[in-house]
Amino acid sequence: DARVTQTPRHKVTEMGQEVTMRCQPILGHNTVFWYRQTMMQGLELLAYFRNRAPLDDSGMPKDRFSAEMPDATLATLKIQPSEPRDSAVYFCASGLGGERTGTGELFFGEGSRLTVL
Amino acid sequence: GDSVTQMEGPVTLSEEACLTINCTYTATGYPSLFWYVQYPGEGLQLLLKATKADDKGSNKGFEATYRKETTSFHLEKGSVQVSDSAVYFCALSWANYGGSQGNLIFGKGTKLSVKP
User: Fold this and answer.
1) How confident is the model over A46-105, as pLDDT tens digits?
2) Residue A81, preceding bond cis, omega within 30 degrees?
3) Contacts of A105 in chain B (CB under 8 A)
């Protein structure tokens, strides 16, 4: 049963600490997304990659957030330094997208709930 | 730019009531349209989709028809159950085209609560 795996599921940290969230996309998927969900803002796109290349990270605060795909089986989202306003659930999603081959469907992980005190 | 607008929630219904959640979109051309559902404590999962005008997506008793004349994709179910309580997201995508497309554009979500 293919699924997107995210770690950690829950993280509580103090302001100023570095936080790294990891995602293992579904094997064979070439597009990976990072979303942030809060009660106030709903779902926000932070960044996404196709074939490991970043396509759009305009939704991400560049001074403290960074997203990478070291290889096709791992995507990371790092916050340094973290702030209380970063408290949210962070979702990774993967899919198959591209010229005339994409389906548009995304498969979401269960999310990483971050609390910054 | 492209956008999705769906009705504000929360929506509270009694079991076996009829459900309609409105969704309209703004886009140049004809994107693919989706409904995703998020159960408490979980990630989003695809509920149904339609890739061209007049297509009807259906799953688990839910239906939505792609109406290009009204740029709408309303979600309907004839008889809801307590287990349908969740947040429902309407979305559009251009994933079948090249370039940087492939992103899903989501509406803000509509929370549905079904009471026994």
Assistant:
1) 998 988 988 888 889 889 999 999 999 999 999 999 999 999 999 999 988 765 555 678
2) yes
3) 34, 46, 49
